[in-house]
Amino acid sequence: MRNIRLQTLGVLAAASLFCGASSQAIASNSPEHIERVVDEAIRPLMKQYDVPGMAVAVAVEGRRYVFNYGVASKESGKKVGDETLFEIGSISKTFTATLASYAQARGDLSLSDMASQHMPALAGTSFDGISLLDLATYTAGGLPLQFPASVTDQNEMIAYFKGWRPSYAAGTHRLYSNPSIGLFGYLAAKRMAEPFDDLMEKTLFPGLGLARTHISVPEQRMGDYAHGYSKAGKPVRVNPGVLDSEAYGVKTTAADLIRFVEANIDGVALDDTLQRAIAATHTGYFKVGDMTQGLGWEMYPYPVDLKQLLGGNSPEVSFKPNRVTRLDPPLPPRDDALINKTGSTNGFGAYAAFVPAEHIGVVILANRNYPIPARVKAAYQILTELQRAAASAP
After folding, report:
1. What is the pLDDT of residues 97-110, one digit of tens each?
2. 355 Cβ partners below 8 Å, 6+ apart?
3. Cα(320)–Cα(73) distance, rounded to whole angstroms?
4. The pLDDT value given to residue 1
5. How far apart are alpha carbons 70 and 80 in whole angstroms?
6. Contact 282, 337 (CB under 8 A)
7. Is the pTM above the cut of 0.90?
8. Can you say how many angstroms the Cα of residue 53 is from the centroid of all Cα atoms in its chain?
9. How far is the C-alpha of 86 from the C-alpha of 250, rounded, in Å?
10. Catalytic amino acids?
């Protein structure tokens, strides 16, 4: 049912999730132990939710482990492998945030800029008083989760934004929104004077060392692109839409996504501008309950319990407007935080979580959109068991 690959990451501090651990923990978190821990979390989940295929990657104690389960296509029977591409849905927003943060680090823009400064067509609209930061953190004033069905091209997008009226003052309420962070990425790309997709494919992904990560899957890689499966069990893939690349367009492998997580944990091997850009995405700007909103990423004080993590990833936070507490000054990036993001499309479900202070992270990719609480619980179980092994080491 599964195959496993171990990759050396280079020298990292020995890590555990919920308490500090010395390098003596390495023996207890052996490849065999990690395999068992992942199996115990993933096999029941796949059975309960009828998930055809999954890829899980774990970064722990200086190494990366990749575990593959099930099939990428029920029709062909092709198994999930190291090259299998999954849609990661809204985890794409963390890449968009990284690109925009890179633009800020280069001096192309400031998060305090008003949105209309970078799109003259929006001058004289509500976007004169909505900053790039408001767009990035879903606090623009109530932009919806999705565009109306009538918005199918750029001209209709601009017309929609020109006619939109906020329900709340900017910076007072958070309502999770693809048009909001999508516009953020779109405007960042305009300031960088290149198409968004090109910036991702030719600048950001190569800069991160991600050779198997795409917005548009190349023809030669289509054989590795998993089929997602709808609630009815039909094969599906993401439909094109306005600002789809910016909001939910990334397709990647488990190995590449855990590499991105590792860059967020410790980007010392990256160029200085990209290091600063990634670190800046961990800045906290608003509080919503126990969750702190960064750029793309959502963060919790470390250690965190499962109830807090589930609360921050609940429908109440994801789909309803929530009054926010502005952090003034913003909370600087912290290593003692659990940082996470979920992602879904009609046929895929994904989750990524990591703790910089402990140099540990996990990504879970699936070709079915199964419930978010199940993803969070599985990741929490994996990381907790790794911690227990580390804590019990002599």
Report:
1. 999 999 999 999 99
2. 15, 17, 265, 302, 335, 336, 337, 338, 339, 361, 383
3. 35
4. 41
5. 6
6. yes
7. yes
8. 20
9. 8
10. 90, 176
